[in-house]
Amino acid sequence: MSFTAEVKDELARVLPECSHCGKATLAALVRIEGTLFVSGPGRYRVEIATDVPSVARLVIKLLHGIYQLRTELTVRRSVLHKTPNYLIEVPAQPHLPKSLLDLGVITEEGGLEVGIRPDIVAKQCCAAAYVRGAFLGSGFIANPRGDFHFEITVESESLAEGLVALLADKGIKARIMQRRSSYMVYLKSGNAILEFLAFVGAHQCALRLEQ
Q: What pLDDT, in 10s, does the model give residues 70-82?
């Protein structure tokens, strides 16, 4: 298992501090790792893919527990990497649009939300939960025995700036780099990565990195 997968596995098991933390984590996961399909006015379906089984279980648990959404799980095996990939589909259903609005994925007008809606990250624990979800979605952290490298890849500059602002509130200085049509939020120093892991609750992985 890669160090990235170890961090994600630990983060997927972090218990929420308040009743809104699960929503914040799910909001980031859907925004960053989800694909939204529109087949007509107010008719949506969502697909979320991950190669970490504990992350797949968390996504399904949150979708069912918070919004009572019906999901379908497909396990695919990569021919190249010989590892399973988990595809979670949320098919079109009556209360999906309202759920996507509550998660800050779409706006009241039906358009896509570009930044991070302030009410979702109003509490410090929810801000940590959102950043945790962002890493669970598209985070990467290099093996601690090599060079220090950390990144989260997102599709919009506004979302990248929102993540940088949430980290800055905890004194963690992150930067943004554009890579083709996506934006990378990255940390380069070992101390900053340690602070991030502590902030989001990956304490065991933080200890490994420190050692």
A: 999 999 887 766 7
Q: What angle do CA 39, 62, 40 make, to 5 degrees?
A: 10
* 125's tokens: 């624990």
What is the rounded CA–CA span in Å between residue 60 and residue 42?
22
Q: Which amino acid is at 128?
A: A
Q: How far apart are the first and last CA of the chain?
A: 19
Name 33's bridge partners: none
Q: The sheet that has 150-154: what strands, in order across it? A: 139-141, 150-154, 182-187, 175-179
Joined together, the tokens standing for residue 139 give 């985070």
Q: Which pLDDT score, from 0 to 100, does residue 146 have?
A: 72
The set of residues, in sequence order, having a beta carbon less than 8 Å from that of 181 and lying 6+ positions away, is: 155
Angstrom distance (rounded) from CA 65 to CA 154: 26
